[in-house]
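Task: sequence in, structure out. Protein: Glutathione synthetase.
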Amino acid sequence: MGTRYCMAQNYLPAIKDGDKRVLVVDGEPVPYCLARIPQGAKPVAIWLPVVAVNLVR
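Result:
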């Protein structure tokens, strides 16, 4: 039927300050990144344009 994907990572204590994620499709970065910035007790997701991305393997 369908396929499900999951992404997991180790817990990083600095996540309390917010995080940014860049999506890569077929080796190319999607021109927007997702920034989750804490606003009180709840993080708020904001889409930001990507100015420059260096992919590191």
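The longest strand covers residues 28-39.
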